[in-house]
Amino acid sequence: MDQTLVWTKVAAIGQVAGAIATFAAVWVSLWLARSERRPHIKAQAGLRLLFDGYGSPFEDTISIRITNHGLRPVRISSLGWRTGWLGRGPKWLAFQHAVQTCNSPMAGQAPPFDLGPGQDASLNLPTEPFKKVGEMRDTFFNRKLPWKAKPSPTKICVVVSIVASKAVVTRVERNLETFLATGIIAAGAAEANKKANAPSN
Predict the structure, then answer these.
(1) Which of 54, 124, 170, 178 is most buried (most C-beta within 10 Å)?
(2) What residue spans define the domains of the chain?
């Protein structure tokens, strides 16, 4: 084979490889730049015990923790709940939404508030109002399935709304999901206080 032809092919392959490498480098740079601008928020919601350590009894609380894992500050505008399984469909499947108010003194930092990179905020909501939701429990935190006589628990998520960005939707922990669906707290403050006050042998 003609040596000139061989080296011409090698040069062509090198040019193609160089073009691919350049394209990949540009694409990665754009992706990194876009990732840096995009909010990266994580949320966690579950039942927790409050204890001040000065003789007061344990208290049950709904704890919502929001963490900014991104590289730019974000503004949290509101918190809420989403129940259901699908964006569209029959009533027993479709999403329902509710905005959570944070007027309790124990709530902590209530929206709206800002979170810088690496910062987090925790909100503590009293459980008592959620024990007295009445019919709302069967229509919002539970759903009437066509094949069951009694309402059944639905999927429950906490919703963190962010200014100028898509809301973060995270499924709540199992203990909170059970409480919201039933109004009952298993292994909560009542049990902890009972054990704490039990006479020692």
Answers:
(1) 124
(2) 1-37, 40-197
